[in-house]
Amino acid sequence: MTTIRRCALAAGPFAVAAAVYAGLFRANRDRLPGRMATHFALDGTADGFMSRDAALWSGIGLTIGVGVLFTVLAAVATKKTGARLTAALGAGTAVLLGCPLIATVVADADAGVHDPAGARLPVWLPAVLLLLVCAATGALIRRLAKAAPRPSTAPPTASLPLVEGEVAAWSRTVVTRALLVPAAAVTLGGLLTAVSGPWQVGLPLFVLGLACAPIAAVRVTVDRRGLTVASTMLPRPRLAVPLDAIADAGSARIDAMGDFGGWGYRILPHRRGVVLRSGEALSVRTAKGREYVVTVDDATTAAALLNGLVNRRAEERSQEC
Question: What is the pLDDT of residues 34-51, one digit of tens each?
């Protein structure tokens, strides 16, 4: 798949969403009030308003802006798996952005030019739409991920010999600007928008930025308990793989976009990843066949220690029997 085709596949759904929204807006412009209802309470009544022009351009700007983000992600994807995942996630996101915007135009057009407060948007409509889109996108991602060849796992690293009773641990902190800078920018932008503009737009951005910040810096620890990956900012999120569940460990080099479709905590069939950058990563395989990948420096030492701990645990059990 060429770069142009990847970008077109990622940008297409957002372009369609923006075009449909703008076309419907223009077709119903004479029926829309000068001050449109743009936010609705749980009972379907309008409780947030915006000028007609602001509603049009903010909707188009949001859709195109997110579309540009997914297009850039698709452009830097060097493997088919990452391109497919980006396209699937982008399509679902375009629908989630476009449908509520279109539904708002329809609700305002039905209310008429003189009564924006009379617009109604039943709460069940976006809720059902969200469930359907999430289910369809999840199924599409799963299908596309299976369509691509499963990446080969890293060979086990030679184990570090440990004698009985010897205590050993390894720990490294990983910080990524790929998540930290965007998270800070989104958080600040959301805060400023919530204070000086429509809070309905600013609050979700603020929450999204805060949610991304904890995963931008993590501490990776290998000790007698197994593998632990924890945020340096908050107790959660936290990933723990018990030593008893580990079969072996190795070191590998990964491509964040190509292998996992992006950064952060990634979920693929039989594979999980805490991916903060491309490059060296610790690969841990469980007895049930699942692989956990964590991008971290000096992964070879961490893998050797894990294998040593696993081998010593196996020897202790054989002696007990």
Answer: 788 776 766 667 777 778
